[in-house]
Design brief:
single chain; 7 helices; 2 domains; 7-stranded mixed beta sheet; 16% strand; alpha/beta
Length: 231
């Protein structure tokens, strides 16, 4: 049964760099599941930057903006898989469900075009509920458990700032928050990244934290936990 690691944090907090380093500390094969779509030149440049960073690591890439569970089933069962990221995936689900502001920038919602999504995978209703999100996340977890390799998910931590101004923004916060909670409950290990520094919120050993000590965990300790999960 494959283990699950969830890495969360704010934008540009160091999440992608951490998961790449962890995955490359494990044996091949390595698979990167990309949920984003290149909708503008800025996104194209960001994707190219990440691809160059992975170029020497023996990665193969699966592009799946809508159905991460299908990508996990398609990946080699023994591969370490990185899914980056759940936050973009949630934006894709909302866009296809019609839950966006009419004047919202398309790129900001991480949308995918209807033609890019298989008909069978599109939402059957014009809305997306928290229960729908939980069901989809449970499907992803089940796909992970059917694998022998480790799966590492990247997501964004939302809701720490001001209340979003638009109804779509508030709905996105709620849905992604529910997604993150569901995935964190299933994961054996959860890491919060802050300014490039990792804080282990949940570890496979279940060790308690001594709050008198520094909150940041060194990379070597996190890598040991990951290797324990991957055995």
């Amino acid at each position: 049964m494959g283990g699950i690691v969830l890495v969360t944090g704010g934008c540009r907090s160091g999440k992608s760099a951490l998961v790449q380093r962890l995955a490359e500390s494990l044996p091949l094969p390595r698979v990167f599941v990309a949920t984003s779509v290149a909708l503008d030149q800025e996104m194209v440049a960001r994707i190219e930057q990440h691809q160059k960073a992975r170029a020497a690591g023996g990665w193969s890439t699966l592009e799946e903006p809508y159905d991460p569970a299908a990508a996990l089933r398609a990946a080699p069962a023994d591969a370490v898989v990185v899914v980056d990221c759940l936050a973009v995936w949630m934006g894709n689900l909302m866009w296809e469900a019609g839950m966006r502001e009419t004047d919202a920038p398309r790129a900001a919602t991480a949308a995918v075009t209807p033609s890019a999504v298989p008909a069978a995978a599109k939402p059957s209703a014009a809305s997306l509920s928290e229960a729908d999100v939980v069901e989809r996340c449970e499907g992803i977890v089940e796909a992970c458990r059917q694998r022998s390799g480790l799966t590492i998910f990247v997501t964004n931590e939302v809701g720490l700032g001001v209340v979003p101004e638009s109804p779509a923004g508030r709905r996105y916060r709620d849905l992604l928050g529910r997604c993150n909670q569901t995935m964190a409950e299933a994961a054996e290990m959860v890491v919060l990244m802050v300014s490039g520094l990792p804080l282990v919120l949940k570890s496979p050993s279940g060790e308690g934290r001594d709050l008198r000590k520094a909150v940041c965990d060194d990379y070597e300790a996190i890598e040991r936990h990951v290797h324990e999960l991957a055995r």
